[in-house]
Amino acid sequence: QVELVESGGGLVQPGGSRTLSCVGTGFSVANTVVKWWRQAPGKERELVAQIREIEGIPSYAYSVQGRFTVSRNAANNTVYLQMNNLRPEDTAVYYCNYLLYWGQGTQVTVSS
Question: Minimal CA–CA distance to 82: which of 96, 71, 92, 90?
Fold first, then answer.
């Protein structure tokens, strides 16, 4: 059974950092595409970052390039989203996604 569980959200001051984790079960993150999305209130869900299959090449939305880093650890079957220099506009619920499967989301609020 496939399951994704996100964690790591919380309240962060502007300019701060946060690392989100997505633990997968029922599949291997090492050879699949796992994506990070976010959804702010009143807005559509936005693809933030993804890490491609075997070669592990990451790609990012323009809005987070240079600030966010996606990575994975096959040993604990986890995909991470390291977020630096956070801005108020990064406030959203962050979700990880694999094929048709979604996690429950984790709230990130950037505010002073």
Answer: 71
List the alpha helices (DSSP H) in 1-112.
none
Render pLDDT for 66-97 as a digit per residue (tens, 0 to 9).
999 999 999 999 999 999 999 999 999 999 99
Is the pLDDT at 54 greater than 80? The verdict is no
Give the pair of three-digit tokens for residue 84.
């630096």
Whole-Å CA distances, 21 to 4, 42, 44, 112: 10, 25, 22, 24
Q: Give pLDDT, residue 53.
A: 66
Beta carbons within 8 Å of 59's beta carbon, 6+ residues apart: 49, 50, 52
Q: What is the DSSP letter of 26?
A: S
pLDDT at 30: 85
